[in-house]
Amino acid sequence: MADKTRIVLIATAWGPLLGGINAFNQKLALAMAEVGSDAVEILCAVAASKSDRRFNDHVRSAAEGGVTLLPYSYEGEDPRTGDVSAIEIIEAVKALGRGEEINWWIGHDVVTGFTAQDVSERYGGKVGLIHHMAHARYANLTGDQGDKLLNKVEAQERLFNGRAEALFAVGPLLKESLEEITSRDDVTEIIP
Question: How many separate helices (H) and strands (E) can be counted in the chain?
Fold first, then answer.
């Protein structure tokens, strides 16, 4: 597998558990593995509680689709509420025992984007970020107001204007949003 490009997508669960980003991530990972089976190795770092008996089923079903799951542990009820540990993900990669080079770390917006940047800085490899939500545009729909909305908007500006060799957006409106946030013209639109 040394000749293959190794890509790690970072999520908080495998499949629709904990929200749409994880459902999107699962389908993206499986599609990438299918399309690029000769050229890429797809890995997916996901939060795994030691008490979750379903995780072994997830590992098996992902492997059947050509994706290797890399479990990282988390504290609390919901891994989206805290920082995903870059160290945990690096240890999961090393535990594979297949060599350590990772070509790309892919993060999903502010949920795992900062983690992708952190892991890349500590470990090496390029960063790809996927824009999932234009907080400023959808504030009326989500009910976010005041400081909460401002914090989300500022976090996205920091993330997407930080280190990323590739930027992706889900659909044409988010592509336009990301181009506005970053002033970059190299955003790739993903159509689910």
Answer: 7, 7
